[in-house]
Structures are given as C-alpha cells and as structure tokens.
Amino acid sequence: MTIHTEPLKSVSDIERTTTPMTPFPGRIATFLGGRRWRSLAPLAVLIVLCVLIAIANPNFIELRNLVRLANSAAVPLTLAMGLTFIILMGSIDLAVEGTLSVAAMVLVLLAANDGNGNDYGWWAVLAAIAAATAVGFVSGLVQTMLRIPSFMGTLGMWFIGLGLSVYMLGGTAIKLNDASIRDLALHRFLGLPVAVWVAFGAFLLATVIQYHTKLGRHILAIGGDEDVAKLSGVNVVRVRITAFALAGFFFGIAGVLAAAQLGQSHAVIGDGRLFAAVTAVVVGGTALTGGEGGVVNTLIGVLIVTVLANGMILLGISPYIQQTVQGLMIIAAVALSLDRVRLKIVK
User: Rounded to 5, what percent of the chain is helix, strand, coil?
Assistant: First the structure.
C-alpha cells in the first residue's frame, strides 16, 4: 500500500498562497495608516481648526488674542521639545512635572525671593537648568543601568522631584522678586513676550539637534529598530542617557519660564503639564512606538492643543466639555499616529 505524503506548509507559505478578502474596517485602518496621510493630517487639522474658530468668533484672529496664544504655547512647546526626543526612541518620560518643579524651585530659592536672602541673579537660571538636566541624566541612568522600563523609572523620578520641591519650599509658595528674570514674561520684544522668543529658540535648538547632529540620527535609529541600531555601531546606552539628560535640559528651561510667568514657585507648579506635553507630541504625529515624527511635528501639535483650548474658551464651552474634547483628541491622535500596515498585534 502506497501512502502519498505532502510536506506541511509553513505559515509563510500559507500566507503567500492565500489572498483573503480584507474586511472593510481593515481597509479603513490601512488608509489611516498610510504614511502620507499621517504626515499631512496634523497640519490639515490645525488649518481647519483655525478657520472654524475664526468663523465662529472673529476675536480669535485679533492681534491681542494671537499674542495670548503665543504666550500660552511657550512653556508647553519647550516641554514638548524635550519629550519628543524620548518618544522618538520609543520610550516615555513621566518625570516632566517633577523635573519642571525642581527647576522652578532652584530658580526661586537662589534668585531674589521673599523666603531667604539669596540673590544670585541669572546664575539662578543656570543652576535651575543644570538641576533639571541632572534629573534627566539620573532618569537615563535608572532606565539603562537598572534596566527598568522608562515608564516606571521616570514615574519614580516624577515623585522624587515633587518630594524635593515640597521639602525645599516648605510646602508653601515662594515669590520671585528678581525683576530681570520676571521680564522673561513681562517684557516684550517685537510685540511678543520674551518667553515666546525663548521657546522659539528652544525649538530651533531642538531642530538642529534632530536633523543636523549624530545624536539626533541615533535617537531616530533607536526608535526605528534598536537591534539594527546596535548592529550599526550605535552606543544605545549612551544615546539613551544623553537623550534623557537633553529632555531634562528643555524641562529646565520650561521651569524657568513657568516661574517667571507666575512670579513664584510651589510644589505643584507643573500640575497638568505632562498631559499637555504628551498630547502635543502625539497630536503632532510623532508615533508612540518611536522612529517616526520629530520636533517640527511637535510644533504643529502644540499649536493644535493651544488653539483648541483658546477657541473653546472664546466659544464659552464648559470646562468639563473641554476635558472631554481633549480626551477624544488624544484617542484620535494615537489612532492616526500608529502605522497599521506594520502593527499586527496591539497589546
């Protein structure tokens, strides 16, 4: 008796020999996952949003309101610049609020204030940025040396930063009395607050780092495929530590601007800043999976978030509805930022 046998087909063989009909939801997912669509969507959303709000309330395009918009975007833009580098690697930095709080605390305690006799002027600004950079550096060490996921490592650094601020400030608000530092928020240059120009400078610096330095290319490579980056000779540990320190640097600048705008520092000065920064980065089109997007995308994302918040206030929308809209915006942004052609499994 002869038995005819046929070799078993592998999964790849089956996939090549079968062409199942793509269900309608899958077609939509493929369309939304298209690279060209995802790259143009944030800019299109920003333009449509501005047009609709301007039609609903012409006060939106008044010069006074546009200046207010720019001033409101200064701190979120600076924070989002630092966070963009972390998300580009496929990681996350939840220590935004804690790091900003540390920077503002150091600034206020070293500059002229109503809590002690210190008056180190602009040295206090440098110390604040250095302290925030150090926090970012430690976050990078925790993530790489202890091999703790960035989500948990930076979550711990968030609370460490808040704890330091509460302890050093004594649980109270300390007033910033240095007039020259306060001028970052109060003085205007070419019609815009100096803080806006500082934030724009931070954007230019971030642009140079991403597109014109080896560090920027390595960050993008790690986010694209870390194993391939290692095989290409990239020192992943060093790049990760540097990226977290760089993020801390930008968070420090944002902390200085926040303290200058408020004229004081307190432990929860960064409350809500993490949400705004992450939202701006994702809405701008930088993928949470890493390797796609960048600081230019983030600039558009910050403008979308700021314009939407300003527009809802002008239209008299309830704050509770505003939170709902922001939540929906995050879900939509993440849905548009994911590459569904490559993403086969969602956990």
Answer: 70, 5, 25
Report how far residue 212's alpha carbon sits from residue 152's, in angstroms, rounded to the nearest whole number.
Answer: 31
Task: Say whether pLDDT at 119 is over 90.
Answer: no
Q: How far apart are CA 248 and CA 78, in angstroms?
A: 11
Number of residues that this document lists for the chain: 347
> Is the Cα torsion angle 105, 273, 254, 293 positive or negative in sign?
positive
Contact 196, 187 (CB under 8 A): no
Q: With CA atoms as reference, report the closest residue to 176 among 109, 99, 254, 252.
A: 109
Strands (DSSP E) contained in 183-257 are: 188-189, 192-193
What's this model's pTM, rounded to 2 decimal places? Answer: 0.83
Q: How would you class 145 by CB atoms within 10 Å of its CB: exposed for 0-12, middle for 13-18, buried for 19 or more?
A: exposed
Cα 279 to Cα 301: distance, rounded to the nearest angstrom? 8
Tell me the Ramachandran region of residue 119: left when phi exceeds 0, alpha when psi lies from -120 to 50, beta otherwise.
Answer: beta
Q: pLDDT over 70 for what percent of the chain?
A: 84
Measured between alpha carbons, how far apart are the two ends of the chain, in Å?
Answer: 50
Q: Which two tokens stand for residue 307?
A: 């314009």
The pLDDT value recorded for residue 238 is: 92
pLDDT class for 38, splitting at 50, 70, 90?
Answer: low
User: Residue 217 and residue 89: Cα distance in Å, rounded?
Assistant: 11
Mean of pLDDT values over 4-22: 45
Torsion, Cα of 164, 237, 280, 211 (10° steps)? 130
User: pLDDT of 208-226, one tens digit each?
Assistant: 999 999 998 999 888 888 8
pLDDT surpassing 50 at residue 32: no
Q: Which of 174-183, 248-257, 326-335 has the lowest mean pLDDT?
A: 326-335
CA distances from 163 to 26, 85, 119 (A): 47, 26, 24
Give the pLDDT mean for 98-126.
88
Alpha carbon distance 223, 246 (integer Å): 16
* Number of helical (H) and strand (E) elements in the chain, helices listed first: 15, 4
The token pair at 178 is 């240095």
Tokens of 181: 């530092």
